[in-house]
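Running this now, will post back.
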Amino acid sequence: ADYACDGIVFSTPTGSTAYNLAAGGPIVHPGSEVMMMTPISAHTLTSRSVVFPAGISLSVDSHDNPDEPLVSADGQPAFASPVVFPLQISVSIRAFPLLEETGHSHFRVLRNKMKWG
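Update: finished.
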């Protein structure tokens, strides 16, 4: 598919409440094995986030800005390089262990983080 937008955010459920949410993407439970793709400042009313199963690989290319598109990964400094395209995006097979307190509730954390009553 082609997107007319300023950029695209790819995220896992853990990152769904960060830049993905700010760009209009969905909040996804961290136990879900999915990857989200959310257009940034899409130039159409019909562009929406898409949720994909974790086992697939997506290929991303830049057609309208072949000079030096920017690439950034999880808060790392962005770099400009046309040679990274097409870019393959997939969920790693390696797990990232997170420590949780006893009685941890994703929904309680979300309610506090989003200031939902």
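The chain has one domain: 7-114. More later if anyone needs it.
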